[in-house]
Amino acid sequence: MSLLELKNVSKIYGELKALDNVNIHVDQGEWVAIMGPSGSGKSTMMNIIGCMDKPTKGEVLLDGTDISKLPSKRLTDIRRDKIGLVFQQFHMVNYLTAVENVMVSQYYHSMPDEEEALEALGRVGLRERARHLPSQLSGGEQQRVCVARALINHPELILADEPTGNLDEANENIVLDLFAQLHKEGTTLIVVTHDPEVAEAAQRTIVLEHGRVAREVINENFGKQ
Amino acid sequence: MTKRRMFLRMITASLLRRRSRMLIALLSIGIGATILAGLVTIYVDVPRQMGAQFRSYGANMILQPTEAGALTEESLQDILSVFSPEELVGATPYRYVRLDMTSRQQSFNTAGTDFSQVVKTSPYFSVEGAYPASTREVLVGKEVAETIGVKPGSTMELTYQPSVSISNNPQDDRTPGAQLSGSAEGWSGGIVYVSAVLDDQAKIASIQIDAHSQTPEFGGRATEDEEFAAQFIGKALPLTLGQEVDALSGATVTSTAVVDALNNARKATPAALPHTLNFTVTGILTTGGKEEGFAFISLADMESLTGESKLDVAELSISANAEQLDTYVNEITEKNQGVAAKLAKRVAKSEAAVLSKLQALVFLVTAVVLLLTMICVSTTMMAVVSERRREIGLRKALGASDGSIRAEFLGEGMFLGGLGGIMGALLGFVFAQVVSVNVFGSSITFQPLLLPITVIVSMIIAAVSCLLPIKRAVAIDPALVLKGE
Ligand SMILES: Nc1ncnc2c1ncn2[C@@H]1O[C@H](COP(=O)(O)OP(=O)(O)O)[C@@H](O)[C@H]1O
Ligand SMILES: [Mg+2]
Q1: Are residues B475 and B354 both part of a single domain?
Q2: Domain end residue (candidates: B311, B343, B375)
Q3: Chain A residues with CB inside 8 Å of B401's CB?
Q4: Which residues contact B409 (CB under 8 A, 6 or more apart)?
Q5: Any idea what the Cα angle at residue B352 is, between residues B346 and B354, rounded to 5°?
């Protein structure tokens, strides 16, 4: 069953076509990697899927709803209810502790629940560091907090834009293991990456070039490692 | 955990963990609230202060005898009975007479008065030393004190020179039974006064000499020396010193003056003699006004000197509004024939004018201060918003609605407003107290209502100041912030 479908989506900035007639289709529970050189439109696409931007042309069907023409208030509701975001920069609220950062996501979604937030931190191996401020955490630890924050509301779709771009090997593996777990639980994952190793962990890789889908590669080895 | 608790937790964390920036906002609100609370306190207190000030700024009603009438201490007490004791702040009687200080050849206006009332109707009188507390004590105006060279503790004499009507007809002089009065210059310019009564043969029957202006050990003795005076009895005018009468030993100049005064003497009726009393200076008066050219003694002493107990004017300080004062003026004028009441209009009218001007000024300053505070808080919050762009974008990406962003910033702003308000109410009271003590010379009581009012106004100001920054915050695009800046 398809969760996401992009039909002839274009995003045009003046002369520049950041996305040029893109057609993509992602199934419920699928784990997809997006690759492509810098400036090829990966982040632009993620922003559109993540309900933070609208395409200039085309349709974006998320769970059967066309989100390409919705007012921003409705987009916020959909983003809050269905999507978990992980960014390349470990965006945390710098004056809130790790657990409070996770709870912010709960706060906007439904009800803050400290126990549940601590459990989510436990899942990313940071239960002991729950009371630490971002400045007291390493980059890898901060990114793990962001993953915990993204999964706390059990979103249908997790969008990660270069989540391992600034991480060392060990933390990269922890994050990939978490994605694998989420995938097993049925969460749909779309991960933008430069790193072929990260792309290989996914079921399918979509390659963008100059705002167009250049090719799609099915990972034959998926689940065999 | 409820949403509300999380909301408060986020706000307090933001304020506590981002201290330096928030301190600036808090400080600007706090200072604004301080000035607000201070000025409002003064604003509320000004009428009270000014009322007391104006009342204490002297008399607002004047009583004077009409041309045919008279004012005495008794009739004054009579008139004062129309006022209730609370209304009557003070009533000061004055009797003005020009007295001489012959030893310094000076004369100046002297007021007989009641010092216990002067303090009440002329509180702005500034006295170096003390007010006279008993008879034979004098308060000297600064100008007079400088001319005659006296200080508190000095002694001085004051002489009442009765006005003497001198006959213009030379034929009247030296006629039998004439009363004569004359003066002549004695030692170093001092005037010697002599009066004499002629018998039925136009010879001197009695003589009185006033040589107070002369050196006491020498010429001054002429006043008291009976032997010297006795020589003149039975003699006819004119006289020559060294022939009919001999000079007082060691006082030839004064003796010559006495003889000259007699020879110059004209017929005077009635010939009351000058009367002199000795006084101790208790204080020097500074007012910056005409009072500095006066000396002040008790009414009792004035009576002793002049032998009269009338009053020239009474200054009243009444605690009442302009309307009531008018009613009193009419009442007094109707009831007491011989005494006219009038308002000291300048003070009574200007009271209201100055008051409203002062309040308008305080109001204006308060408005300006509030505006400045708003600009300051708004600027700080604007800086806070741009400093927290990424965080706001992140919150929006996490699903924060525009309403939540508004609520969070408004919450922070109002929290600061409340805290600054409490700070301001307390500091403002101290500020108002300092101003009041220095400007009005009296302290003010803490108005309990000031605390909630200041806090609420500060919160409103903080909220209004946050409107523009919040608009900025809401406009932040989550996509741009997260795109990798
Ligand atoms: N807001 C924007 N205004 C103008 N050009 C933009 C904007 N956002 C992205 N672009 C341009 O669109 C192209 C695609 O950008 P992006 O999606 O960020 O690429 P990627 O994430 O693949 O590196 C780039 O050439 C970029 O400069
Ligand atoms: Mg990118």
Answers
A1: yes
A2: B343
A3: 73, 76-77, 108
A4: B381, B385, B466, B469, B470, B473
A5: 80
Across the range A129-156, mean pLDDT stands at 93
Instruction: Give the residue from A210, A209, A218, A162 showing the smallest Cα distance to A190.
Output: A162
Instruction: Calculate mean pLDDT across residues B6-11.
Output: 90
Beta strands in B14-144 (DSSP E): 61-65, 71-72, 88-101, 106-113, 126-129, 137-141
Which ligand minimizes its atom distance to the CA of A13?
A: 1
Q: Are strands A57-62 and A65-66 parallel, antiparallel or unpaired?
A: antiparallel
List chain A domain ranges.
2-218
Q: Identity (one letter) of the amino acid at B151? A: K
Report strand pairing: B165-166 vs A65-66: unpaired
Q: How many domains does chain B have?
A: 3
The residues pairing with B107 across neighbouring beta strands, listed in sequence order, are: B100
CATH H superfamily, domain A2-218:
P-loop containing nucleotide triphosphate hydrolases (3.40.50.300)
Cβ within 8 Å, pair B17-A104: no
Amino acid at the residue A158: I
Kindly indicate the confidence band of residue B346, based on its pLDDT and cuts at 50, 70 and 90. Answer: very low
Residues B34-48 have pLDDT tens digits of 888 888 887 777 666
Q: Are residues B13 and B89 in the same domain?
A: no
Please give the torsion angle defined by the CA atoms of residues A40, A46, A47 and A49, in that order, rounded to the nearest 10 degrees: 130
Sign of the Cα pseudo-torsion (A88, A93, A98, A100, in order): negative
CA of B484 to the centre of ligand 2 (A): 7
DSSP B220: G
Question: pLDDT (tens digit, 9 = 90+) per residue, B405-463?
Answer: 999 999 988 998 999 999 998 898 888 888 878 876 777 777 788 889 889 999 999 99
Q: Cα separation of B317 and A17, whole Å?
A: 90
**How close is the nearest chain A Cα to the Cα of B20, in Å?**
13
Residue B278 scores a pLDDT above 90:
yes
Helix (H) or strand (E) holding A106: helix A98-109
Q: Is the ipTM of this complex over 0.90?
A: yes
Residues with CB under 6 A from ligand 1: A 13, 16, 18, 36, 38-44; B 483
Task: Name the residue range of residue B462's domain.
Answer: 3-53+350-482
Comparing A214-223, B17-26, B448-457, the range with the smallest average pLDDT is B17-26
pLDDT in tens, B233-265: 999 888 888 888 888 888 888 999 999 888 888
The pLDDT value given to residue B270: 54
Instruction: Name B483's Cβ contacts closer than 8 Å, sequence gap at least 6.
Output: A43, A47
Mean of per-residue pLDDT scores for chain A: 92
Shared domain check, B361 and B258: no
Contact (CB<8Å) A108/B402: no
pTM of the complete model: 0.62
User: In terms of DSSP H, where are the helices of B299-438?
Assistant: 299-306, 322-335, 345-387, 389-397, 402-435
Question: Within this chain, do residues B199 and B257 fall inside the same structural domain, yes or no?
Answer: yes
Q: How far apart are CA B305 and CA B301, in angstroms?
A: 6
Least CB–CB distance from A89: residue in B1, B7, B484: B484
List the beta bridge partners of residue B279: B156
Q: Kindly list the strands in the beta sheet with A188-192, ordered across the sheet, starting from the edge strand earlier in the chain.
A: A83-86, A157-161, A188-192, A31-35, A204-209, A212-218
For an interface test with A, give the residue of B4, B15, B482 to mutate (most A CBs within 10 A).
B482
Q: Nearest chain B Cα to A44, which residue? A: B483
